[in-house]
Design brief:
The complex is a heterotrimer of chains A (390), B (134) and C (650). Helix content of chain A is 46%, strand content 7%. Chain A is α/β, with parallel strands linked by helices and 390 residues long. Chain A has 3 domains: 3-89, Orthogonal Bundle (Fumarate Reductase Iron-sulfur Protein, Chain B, domain 2), CATH 1.10.1060; 97-251, Rossmann fold (3-Layer(aba) Sandwich), CATH 3.40.50; 258-380, Rossmann fold (3-Layer(aba) Sandwich). In chain A, strand 6, helix 17 and strand 7 form a beta-alpha-beta unit. In chain A, helix 8 (141-147) runs antiparallel to helix 9 (156-169) and helix 9 crosses helix 18 (373-380). Chain B has 134 residues and is an alpha/beta fold. Chain B has a single domain (5-125), classed as Rossmann fold (3-Layer(aba) Sandwich). Helices cover 41% and strands 17% of the residues of chain B. Chain B has helices spanning 14-23, 45-53, 74-92, 109-125, and strands at residues 5-10, 32-37, 58-63, 99-103. In chain B, helix 1 (14-23) crosses helix 4 (109-125). Chain B is globular. Chain C contains 18 helices and 32 strands. In chain C, the strands form 11 sheets. In chain C, strands 8-7-6-16-27 form a 5-stranded parallel β-sheet, covered by helices on one side. In chain C, strands 18-25-19-20-21 form a 5-stranded parallel β-sheet. Chain C has a 4-stranded parallel β-sheet with strand order 2-1-3-4, with helices on both faces. By secondary structure, chain C is an alpha/beta fold. Classes of the chains: A alpha/beta (390), B alpha/beta (134), C alpha/beta (650). Chain A binds chain C through residues 93, 95-100, 317-319, 321-323, 353, 357-360, and chain C through 578-586, 598, 600, 603-606, 622, 625-628, 636-637.
């Protein structure tokens, strides 16, 4: 049994009936006729070639649009993930954005004992703790905020600040840790299992020691990584893992927070990780719906059929990604909304990139403000307090 | 263990300055490993991180003085990128003193030697790199 | 992959500090290395023969030489590779001399470092790819900017070799500063007499002169420049004007003549001097009554060929050339900022160039020695040297020509006015040059009084005489000399428009502001922009003799380029992978050479690199977010391989 054979078994590729539905819906295949998810699976099963060496395994965005449609639930993204690990073990080095800066940074974070300074964003009005019920996992917001500091209007630290403000409003002092490290999502999806596990151990120990019963995330990727990948390796975690939208949804239901009325039209972009990977579609919509006067206008491709932001794990930031990003933004503009809301900071970075650079279409067709869900919520909560969203 | 330092030098100014230090027989500590590129504008944050990840105790990026870049403004890019990287290192818990940016012209052999001597001394004052054991 | 590593002893330069045997042994253990040798002088013929033999017998495809700086011998070994049918870019040098044996004393540490440097070079060469030089066509014409003696000499040399030359001069006549001078050292020739035959170049079939013109824009690249030239409106139709000079004679408006150092007047329509080339006058619109008052028209009325055109507009012409020679000369330092010398305050304090005009037979006094304040004939003169030169408050450099021109003027005064009293207050007399020292000696014999000391002050006296105060540093006495006239040997400066030209041509300037040569010794006429050369004082102060030599050098450099119909370029250039590029435009933003365009392709945008314009700096690669942009020979994987090798332990 080769590693690829194991993979075929694990993801249920044997069940593939070669119906081709995956290729039909695959956004990459739609842009690039040479790319077909089905063929990689077929080739792997036939053992024709070492599919781990195929460049196409790095082209997949792992958006799971295909799995969503698959009559036999073949988990294609997991297959790709496994193939990438296999490729890396044979010495293949993937080409990642920013010349591998993010991945290098993440690998470095896997070194135990680094005295990070990642809490510079915690302003005096925000209350955080070392131990407590709720752990707020900030993810790579502090680092991304530096790396993307030239990106106009990006307010990644505002997401973290808004999250703590929301907790505080609900009477919660969340644990926010200077010792937290990257969740490892991007390493995991670029075949670096070794460093991924190192990061995971650091984070799990940290959360365990904090005594938290709930871990809340503002990043769809972090949540997916904990929910699926960590538990896959480390077994079930004895704490609840929640996206901030779920957490706020509960707070609203319990009446712990209420919103100011606002006349605004927004549209919501489902991130692949939150939507198709984790099935969380309703919580963000519920919360937006609870804001009086806020009108949620759905885009044509929504929920399970949501479009991908084009890039995952800093791998596929190419011309096809840009086409997808612009198409998504055009779709958002088409709703007539005032802004586009998303629950994944990475989606925001990627979509923002597309509208801040040169583009082959008229700018106004794709130009609509993008705001993170957490900031939207914090800014809409009733009563004063500091706002971190502006 | 002696610290190891990766130095990025541009072909036209700082590497020529390093050559001049040699031609003038100026002495500086042997901890520096020079990687010569065409322009400091070629240096990417990822290279700096990569060197540190592999255990370099320090990284020094050098180029022509501002305004004197052989490629007009490549060194301005270097400045921008090193500033960003410094902020990133700070957040990550890597002492930002491990990264330095210096402008050294082709005629500044003495400056090359003194900058390198100074940097090696400063690095020696720091604890060994936390990534050194990786 | 067969790599050969060659460790040079460089006599004892390397082997005296680094254990070359050990380095060789170590190199042999590195991945891909099939042979490692060391030799006394790798760059010598027997040294190169070792490499040649191994390439042949051991089938080497990649070579590393651990020796001196690549600046010294990279080309030597690349040539060996090429000669043996290999690719010159499958070669790397480890600099174990300048960056190792010469800067370290501890043998073990230096040897240890040499291991690392060799390992890094081997790691890089392993990742190197064969590169082919780029071939481009060459336009066999040249542009010369500046029509002084440098520009004229360069133009003539090129024209005589059969190349078409475009000569652009910002004044209305060629001739430059040399045409203003009285006599030249050390031969005391009349400058205009020796210049005139050269100024006849306007009749040369290969030379086109654009006078009263400026360079507007230069696009393109080595061998293929496109130059926009602004022909400023002269208000005179060149094809009709026969240079009779009637307009100039009849023009009622007199204006101070800058050419004459503001010591005399010219007309509002004027040629610079009687022998001007071309002999076409220019109407000075700032002072002409037709433009200031809207009436006059005398020139138009008297012109026998109806050549006056008040409506004339500037005209932009474009020329294609393969090489450009910058011969824009110098500007004389304005000494009024040195308050203690009173220039501008005291009428009888003149600059060197003013004195040249004052004593010039066709100057404002027709050569009669009269001082500006009262027209009296001065009898006592003080020359003050190093005004604005050799002074860190103004310009640190030596202006090189002032010693000799002062010696010349001082001697001429003693020759032609034996009754005159002539002081030269100098810092050092620098008379290096053929016949210069002898000339200086004659001036001493003729009674010029040389006083070593920099004048500290000039005091104006009531009768317009001047008191020069200085220490005679040989005796330690403070001297006060009362004179009728003071001549300041002013520094030579870069011209005022040199910064603009620098930007247009994308060339560099040194800290002194003069254009920077590619190498101070070995490439004195080249700039770092291929195809652009410098001649004469544009590069730094020099006298006429040196200027002519420099100009001939620049012409030679240019002709080496344009004598070919094609040329090959260094292949280190950036390129974009169009299947990856998202056309964001970041690369274009950082490219200083206009080498990148964002272009549409199948409904999307992609970056396109013009490999000829690309200088290979790699700034665009750093700016590229997704790895679409790459630069040959300095790819990410190549640089990363060196970083990784640097951090390995031998």
């Amino acid at each position: 049994m080769t590693a690829v054979d194991d993979l075929i078994r694990d993801i249920g590729a044997h069940y593939c009936i070669e119906c081709g539905k995956c290729t039909t819906v695959c956004p990459i295949a739609n842009a690039n006729p040479d790319f077909a998810p089905r063929l990689i699976v077929v080739k792997a099963m036939a053992g024709i070639a070492n599919v781990a060496l195929e460049p196409d395994i790095w082209r997949c965005m792992t958006c799971e649009t295909c799995s969503e449609m698959c009559p036999y639930n073949v988990l294609y993204s997991e297959f790709i993930k496994g193939l990438r690990a296999e490729a890396v073990s044979t010495g293949i080095v993937p080409v990642c954005s920013q010349h591998d800066l993010m991945q290098t940074m993440m690998r470095m974070m896997a070194t135990p004992g680094l005295q990070q300074n990642r809490l510079g964003w915690v302003t005096p009005d925000l209350k955080i703790a070392d131990k407590g019920e709720v752990f707020y996992f900030t993810g790579c917001l502090p680092q991304m905020s530096t790396i993307f500091r030239d990106q106009e209007d990006v307010n990644l630290l505002g997401i973290a600040q808004s999250a703590v403000a929301i907790f505080n409003r609900a009477g919660i002092t969340p644990v926010v840790s200077n010792q937290e490290v990257c969740c490892g999502h991007d390493l995991n999806w670029t075949g670096d299992e070794v460093n991924f596990e190192k990061l995971m151990r650091i984070n799990l120990d940290l959360i365990k020691n904090s005594g938290a019963a709930k871990v809340v995330f503002t990043c769809a990727e972090c949540l997916r990584t904990f929910e699926i990948d960590y538990q896959d390796i480390a077994g079930d975690l004895d704490c609840e893992l929640l996206h901030i939208s779920e957490f706020v949804d509960d707070l609203v239901a319990e009446g712990k927070i209420t919103f100011d009325g606002v006349e605004e039209k927004v549209t919501y972009h489902d991130p692949c990780r939150l939507g198709r990977h984790l099935g969380i579609y309703d919580a963000p919509r519920n919360v937006i719906g609870a804001i009086e006067g806020m009108d949620l206008i759905e885009m044509e491709r929504t929920r399970e059929k949501s479009a991908c932001c084009g890039v995952s794990a800093w791998l596929t930031c190419d011309s096809i990604a840009k086409e997808m990003q612009l198409a998504r933004m055009v779709e958002a503009v088409g709703t007539g909304s005032d802004k586009l809301i998303t629950t994944c900071p990475k989606c925001q970075i990627h979509l923002r990139c597309a509208i801040s650079e040169e583009m082959p279409i008229e700018r106004e067709k794709a130009d609509i403000p993008i705001e993170d869900f957490t900031i939207l919520v914090a800014n809409s909560i009733k009563t004063g307090g500091e706002s971190h969203g502006k | 263990m002696e610290p190891k330092i990766v130095a990025f030098c541009c072909k036209w100014c700082s590497s020529a300055g390093a050559d001049l230090a040699g031609t003038s027989r100026m002495k500086y500590p042997p901890n520096i490993r020079i990687i010569r590129v065409m322009c400091s504008g070629r240096i990417e944050p990822s290279y700096i991180l990569r060197a540190l990840e592999l255990g370099a105790d320090g990284v020094i990026v050098t180029g022509c003085h501002l305004g004197d870049c052989h490629y007009i403004a490549g060194n301005e890019q270097a400045l921008k990128r090193v500033e960003m990287t410094t902020e990133l290192l700070e957040t990550m818990g890597i002492d930002p003193r491990r990264l330095r940016l210096e402008w050294i012209s082709a005629s500044e052999g003495a400056r090359f030697a003194s900058v390198m001597t100074d940097f090696v001394e400063e690095i020696k004052k720091l604890e060994p790199s936390p990534l050194g054991g990786v | 992959m067969n790599i050969g590593v060659y460790v040079c002893h460089c006599g004892t330069n390397i082997a005296g500090v680094i254990d070359v045997e050990k380095v060789t042994e170590y190199a042999a253990t590195l991945d891909g290395v099939v042979v490692a040798r060391n030799y006394k002088y790798m760059c010598s013929d027997p040294g190169k023969e070792l490499i040649r033999n191994d390439i042949k017998e051991k089938n080497l495809d990649r070579v590393v030489v651990a020796a001196c700086s690549p600046t010294m011998h990279e080309k030597t070994y690349r040539d060996v590779m090429e000669e043996m049918g290999g690719n010159p870019f499958l070669f790397e040098m480890a600099n174990i001399r300048e960056q190792d044996s010469w800067v370290h004393t501890d043998k073990d540490e230096a040897t240890e470092k040499a291991y690392d440097l060799v390992r890094m070079a081997v790691a890089k060469v392993r990742k190197n790819e064969p590169l082919e030089r780029i071939e481009i066509p060459v336009t066999q014409r040249a542009l010369v900017i500046g029509g002084g003696v440098a520009g004229m000499e360069a133009s003539l040399d090129l024209a005589e070799q059969g190349y078409e030359v475009i000569l652009v001069e910002k004044e209305q006549s060629i001739g430059g500063h040399m045409s203003q001078l009285t006599k030249t050292f050390p031969t005391l020739d009349c400058p205009m007499c020796i210049l005139a035959p050269k100024m006849a170049l306007h009749e040369h079939k290969n030379i086109t002169i654009y006078s009263f013109s400026e360079i507007e824009e230069v696009s393109g690249y080595v061998g293929n420049f496109e130059v926009s030239i602004r022909k400023k409106a002269k208000s005179v139709i060149e094809d009709l004007c026969n240079g009779c000079g009637l307009c100039q004679e009849k023009c009622p408006t007199k204006v101070l003549s800058v050419y004459d150092g503001n010591l005399g007047m010219r007309k509002a329509i004027y040629t610079l001097f009687p022998q001007a080339v071309p002999r076409i006058p220019v109407l000075d619109r700032e002072n002409c009554l037709m433009f200031t008052k809207g009436k006059c028209g005398v020139c138009k009325k008297v012109c026998p060929t109806d050549a006056i055109d008040y409506e004339q507009q500037d005209e932009i012409v474009t020329e294609k050339v393969g090489a450009i020679i910058v011969a824009t000369g110098y500007a004389e330092y304005d000494p009024s900022e040195i308050a203690e010398y009173g220039y501008g305050r005291y009428k009888n304090v003149l600059t060197g160039l003013q004195f040249e005009r004052l004593t010039n037979a066709s100057g404002p006094t027709l050569g009669a020695l009269k001082r500006p304040s009262d027209g009296a004939t001065p009898k006592r003169f003080a020359f003050i040297q190093c005004v604005g030169s050799r002074d860190v408050n103004t310009h640190e450099y030596c202006s090189k020509v002032c010693c000799m021109y002062t010696v010349k003027n001082a001697r001429l005064l003693r020759d032609e006015h034996p009754e005159s009293e002539v002081y030269v207050f100098y810092t050092d007399v620098r008379s290096a040059g053929k016949g210069y020292e002898e000339f200086y000696k004659i001036s001493q014999e003729k009674g010029v009084k040389f006083v070593r000391g920099r004048a500290s002050e000039i005091v104006g006296l009531p009768d317009d005489n001047l008191l020069v105060r200085t220490e005679d540093t040989f005796t330690g006495n403070v001297i006060e000399a009362e004179v009728d006239m003071v001549i300041l040997a002013c520094a030579l400066l870069p011209t005022e428009d040199s910064a603009k030209l620098r930007d247009i041509l994308k060339i560099s300037e040194g800290t002194d502001g003069f254009f920077l040569e590619a190498h101070p010794k070995l490439r004195p006429v080249d700039t770092l922009t291929d195809g652009v050369y410098i001649a004469g004082c544009a590069q730094g102060p020099r006298d006429i003799a040196d200027t002519v030599v420099h100009a001939k050098g620049a012409a030679s450099g240019a002709s080496v380029l344009i004598s070919h119909t094609k040329m090959s370029l260094d292949p280190i250039s950036a390129y974009s992978d169009e299947s990856v590029c998202r056309g964001c435009g970041e690369c274009k933003l950082v490219c200083q050479f206009g080498a990148i365009e964002i272009e549409p392709l199948d409904g999307r945008l992609i970056a396109n690199v013009n490999e000829v314009l690309c200088k290979g700096c790699g700034a665009c690669v750093g700016a590229c977010c997704n790895g679409a942009m790459t630069i040959k020979h300095f790819k990410d994987e190549q640089i990363n391989s060196m970083i990784e090798a640097a951090m390995e332990v031998a």
